[in-house]
Specification:
By secondary structure, the chain is α+β, with helices and mostly antiparallel strands. It is flat and about 75 Å long. The strands form five sheets. The protein has a six-stranded antiparallel beta barrel. A five-stranded mixed sheet has the order 11-12-14-13-21, with helices on both faces.
């Protein structure tokens, strides 16, 4: 990560740090203490008084002076769930209380119900007594972001239970699981259903480095396969407002704050004073999961909304920023400027060219969010400058601006560079604004394949949090010809058909996946789509590989330098096309905290359930017994 000098490092942290989904991967999933759950009943809230807050002189008269922001920590939710479609690596061993809870949940969701298609012959006990290792009882953990809105997605982590013989969750599918505070308490596993905050289901993504073949992995590396991520399939079932708590409870002040926020955003439903102590504030859906930006803005609003005040105060803040330089409180000042609205733009435009990059970025960031074209140009200049400490954060801000042809043009220029880190940020920004130049194709509801035009060298990128996406960026890439590629302990191969000058992709099958032979052109995007199961039906069938399988195969192909540019004259044949799996700063590998695998692997139940199809359990059961898409 590029390190930036000065006080604005805090802004960088808030802009490029992993979104709340990434908290899921932190080793051990450290418990979030001191967080709100659902805000308390306003009529029963205790209203203590706190001493006046000491703030800098320029912050007097802001909402921040009179209140504290609460309910602003990620909220941990958990529960117990069922994973199916494993390849002999699962186990349903669990404490009695957990197993009894799972039986009740499975009955509630339709297992054994004669009118539930696909599940009429699959009773709970029959599924849990699977001796073929196709199912596992797991623990599911997630962190609901602060300010999350109803139906907002987030990632969840799925883990094999302690003292359970599950060896890998690769290719597993999590059935619908209720999540709530202390939902995975083994002494009281039904707590998630009582206080329901979220629901999760979907395919599990595990460490792709060992997903295809763990024969050469160390014991610690194999343990990583007992943990996986369900990307973007945790769903909040209720709004989770931010809460401003007055330090000196007073009904008049609570109403003033409510009206000031409503006025700034022109939305009467965005803030609601519950009593003389608390104001609940709802993050506008236009902010997505960027609650930090919204929270910083509302807390730095001044109570005086006039243009004359904005011009005078904006000028004073500009002088503070210039005079104090490295010690300037730019983190606060940039939010104050943004809160004033367009009236402050004449006062901050001269700072876009300031010699101090901290000051220039703080001013340009505020101006860009206020719709100033000059600020957009300044951010674009920062993004093109390799030496600028705000290069990547400038791209991120461009991606947060309203979708316009101008912003799209700026991002197109950045995607043409030879800096892959910068190109990834530009690509993510382009998808955020829905750039029309990107050809996006959903692949069997498993992932999105993006074809991103660029004059730069070919580059392949895959996400590991949020929405599963694979991007082929730049000049078209293809697999090297001729080719002989083996993976999955020899069960999968890619070979060159010289007669037709195309590829043969062959999978010789196993209990959960049938034998498949697919012909494909060598174009990388076409190969990716075929692996995911898209394309015309062929005589040899279709693949049903998961997103994790496809990413693991791409990573292995890249390691063997078998992905090359389509036009041999464009670059040397020996130069491989780069592949990058999304990295998330600050994430610890969950390997170190994974529980050990018991030595006794033979104690499996003796009854296998009948299957609804060739080697697979039916699609996920959703809420109220309704089938849901996997």
């Amino acid at each position: 990560m590029i390190r930036a000098p000065g006080i604005l490092r805090r802004i960088i942290a808030s802009l490029i740090a992993p979104r709340p989904q990434a908290f899921l991967l932190v080793a051990g999933l450290v418990a979030c203490t001191g967080c709100y759950t659902r805000p308390a009943d306003p009529k029963k809230v205790e209203m203590p008084s706190l001493p006046p807050k000491e703030v800098a002189e320029f912050l007097k008269g802001t909402i921040w002076q009179y209140s504290d922001l609460t309910n602003s920590e990620p909220m941990r939710v958990s529960g117990y769930g069922l994973v199916v479609n494993l390849s002999g690596t699962g186990d349903t061993r669990a404490p009695n209380t957990v197993r009894e809870y799972m039986v009740k949940e499975m009955q509630k969701h339709g297992f054994g119900n004669p009118v539930q298609i696909g599940f009429e012959r699959l009773g709970p006990e029959q599924v849990l007594n699977d001796r073929l290792g196709r199912t596992a009882i797991v623990r599911v953990d997630g962190f609901i972001p602060p300010g999350a809105r109803k139906n907002q997605p987030f990632d969840v982590q799925v883990s094999a239970l302690e003292n359970n013989n599950t060896t890998s969750l690769h290719r597993g599918v999590l059935y619908s699981t209720d999540l709530g505070p202390r939902g995975a308490d083994p002494m009281s596993p039904g707590a998630a259903s009582i206080s329901l905050w979220a629901n999760a289901s979907g395919p599990i993504f595990v460490n792709p480095s060992f997903a295809l073949d763990d024969s050469g992995a160390t014991a610690a590396q194999k343990l990583s396969l007992r943990t996986g991520i369900v990307m973007g399939r945790g769903i909040a079932v209720a709004d989770r407002p931010l809460v401003l708590k007055l330090r000196q409870p007073e009904k008049r002040m609570a109403r003033m704050i409510e009206r000031r926020i409503q006025e700034r955003f022109q939305d009467s439903k965005i803030a609601s004073a519950q009593n003389e102590s608390e104001i609940w504030v709802y993050v506008p859906k236009s902010y997505g999961d960027d609650w930090e930006h919204f929270a910083g803005l509302i807390t730095h609003l001044y109570f005086t909304p006039s243009n004359d005040f904005a011009i005078l105060k904006g000028r004073q803040l500009a002088e503070i920023a210039k005079k104090e330089l490295e010690n300037a409180p730019l983190f606060d000042i940039t939010y104050c400027w943004e809160g004033f609205g367009p009236a402050v733009l004449p006062e901050i435009r001269p700072l876009y060219l300031h010699e101090n990059p901290d000051v220039a970025y703080a001013a340009a960031r505020a101006g860009a969010f206020l719709g100033d074209l000059a600020a957009e140009e300044a951010l674009f200049k920062f993004a093109r400058d390799k030496s600028n400490p705000f290069q990547l954060t400038s791209v991120r801000v461009l991606g947060q601006l309203p979708r316009t042809a101008r912003v799209a043009g700026l991002l197109h220029e950045l995607i043409d560079t030879d800096q892959n880190l910068l190109r990834v940020e530009a690509y993510r920004a382009m998808t955020a604004v829905g750039d029309a130049s990107i050809v996006s194709e959903p692949i069997q509801e498993k992932f999105i394949l993006d074809i991103v035009p660029s004059k730069g060298p070919p580059f392949v990128y895959a996400s590991r949090v949020g929405t599963p996406r694979i991007a082929v960026i730049g000049r078209r890439a293809q697999l090297a010809m001729p080719i002989l590629f083996l993976a999955m302990q020899g069960r999968f191969s890619i070979s060159h058909d010289t007669a037709k000058n195309n590829l043969k992709l062959f999978y010789r099958g196993e209990p959960t996946l049938p034998e498949v032979l697919v012909e494909s052109q060598p174009d990388l995007a076409i190969v990716i789509a075929r692996l995911g199961g898209a394309g015309p039906t062929q005589e040899g069938g279709r693949f049903n590989f998961s997103y994790g399988d496809v990413v693991a195969l791409l990573q292995r192909l890249s390691e063997q330098k078998l992905i090359v540019v389509s036009d041999p004259s464009a670059r040397k044949a020996s130069d491989p096309v780069a592949f990058q799996l999304q990295t998330v700063p600050g994430i610890e590998d969950p390997i170190l905290s994974a529980p050990p695998i018991p030595e006794n692997n033979q104690q499996r139940p003796t009854t296998a359930p009948a299957l609804s199809g060739p080697g697979e359990y039916p699609a996920n059961i959703g809420q109220n017994g309704q089938s849901a898409t996997r």
